[in-house]
Known about the structure:
71 residues
Amino acid sequence: MNVKEIAQQAFKTGRLSLLQETYLYELFEAHRTDEEDLRAADSLINALLDGAVQRESQGWDPCPTIPDFDL
């Protein structure tokens, strides 16, 4: 899997999973990227900043509930 494939999947689903994020870190740490990967990463970063793609976190809930403020 390369950066472009990960970005395409994230755009398609609207989310970046922890596994995909890990793959991205590993690819960049190993310097296994090319110019096309850098463009895909730039687009993915912009989509994350714009909210078009959401990062999955450890407490990620695809159907978040309204918080209960009556504690």
